[in-house]
Amino acid sequence: xxxxxxxxxxxxxxxxxxxxxxxxxxxxxxxxxxxxxxxxxxxxxxxxxxxxxxxxxxxxxxxxxxxxxxxxxxxxxxxxxxxxxxxxxxxxxxxxxxxxxxxxxxxxxxxxxxxxxxxxxxxxxxxxxxxxxxxxxxxxxxxxxxxxxxxxxxxxxxxxxxxxxxxxxxxxxxxxxxxxxxxxxxxxxxxxxxxxxxxxxxxxxxxxxxxxxxxxxxxxxxxxxxxxx
Length: 229
Ligand SMILES: NC(=O)c1ccc[n+]([C@@H]2O[C@H](COP(=O)([O-])OP(=O)(O)OC[C@H]3O[C@@H](n4cnc5c(N)ncnc54)[C@H](OP(=O)(O)O)[C@@H]3O)[C@@H](O)[C@H]2O)c1
Known about the structure:
Rossmann fold, 7-stranded parallel sheet, about 35% helix, binds NADP nicotinamide-adenine-dinucleotide phosphate
């Protein structure tokens, strides 16, 4: 039987490349997205099943209907949002709450709803797409002080990392849980000058999954050394 992956934010950017990569590698793919795929990128391959979902909302029954009790081998929580960078005095707290809703509560909602499907798989993995900018160790060291990153993005990605650690501890021995930084991608979210093709990151992530590494929790950067939490 084919392995099955559920990917969120699968209509554009890295999520779209992940859907393409896994389906081309013989996986069944459930592409979860709140918006349609842009026309310029063509259509999903026939084997990709799509489900409309804003991850800030309760997870729609449609996702479970589509899965119909099937084991989920891999959940990739890829959907994310940041906020524009601003001076301290002008940061809207609502932007932070929204980023935490999408980047932290969103993955938790998916995990809660899909847990029976994950536990039904022989060797399941949860991957939360994170950022090196969510590393408390690196931020405290000033490694990224030259970058204009919003409080909302940094705070929510650090919180998402803690979600990954918490899940790994809760699901120890049952589900491997990884926080994965994809690299500096040439996507809408990428920093100016970011040039990594999201297709390359998608291939590296699929190879990471295929590698069978057992470490959980793990905070890694695709194609590079593991990161400090
Ligand atoms: N780009 C980089 O350089 C970089 C670096 C480090 C980490 N990352 C991480 O990699 C992942 C993918 O980033 P990307 O570069 O592909 O970003 P992107 O091009 O901006 O795509 C973001 C995706 O998230 C979806 N999304 C946002 N809010 C959502 C919501 N409320 N419900 C459902 N979907 C929602 C978007 O859907 P809509 O089309 O509906 O908005 C879109 O599909 C993210 O987790 C990001 O934090 C990216």
